[in-house]
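Why do we care about 3D structure at all? Because function follows from shape, and shape follows, mostly, from sequence. That is the central idea of this module. The next example makes it concrete: a single protein chain, its amino acid sequence, and then its structure expressed as tokens.
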Amino acid sequence: MRTRSDKRQNRKNDHKVLVVEESNKNWVYSDSDSTSSSSSSSDSDPEYVHCLMANQTTTEDEVFDFSNSEFTHEDLINALNEMVYEYRKLTQTFEEVKAENNGLKAQLEDTDCLRTEFSKLKTENESLRLKFCELTSENERLNLVMSSWTQSSVTLSKLHETQKLLNDKSGSGFNVGESSSGETSTQSNPVDGSG
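And the structure:
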């Protein structure tokens, strides 16, 4: 069994304490100094409380003997106050964890919505990619048509120019050199009305 100084040293380390009552024993009333008046079992049976430190294994249980004169009313109140403090701390932690859990559930729902939206966008993206490929193919086909049309237009324009030159020289029977000599001959031989 550990001594009273060991108990106080454990309190200084601020460990979590779990107090377990023996199944065949009763608690001592906190307002009574004598253990015999509060116990319904025989006075020869000492009352024990096993305290388990949070970082200890069950083989290192700390046993408080209520019939021991070293264990005082103050020790019991301190132990109970520590348990109440620990309970409040655990309750607050539980509420914080519960709130965090609810927040994570909301985030998970948001994530599911985002995943669904992402799936829709992915499908739409694939559809747009196929449409882009179709349009690219159509654009290439139209570029080939335009290139052929441009080449045909250039060839037709050259053919038209060649045809025009041929028509100007021989097609009308009018020669550029002949027309200027004909004009000069008419001017040099004016018709005279008096003679």
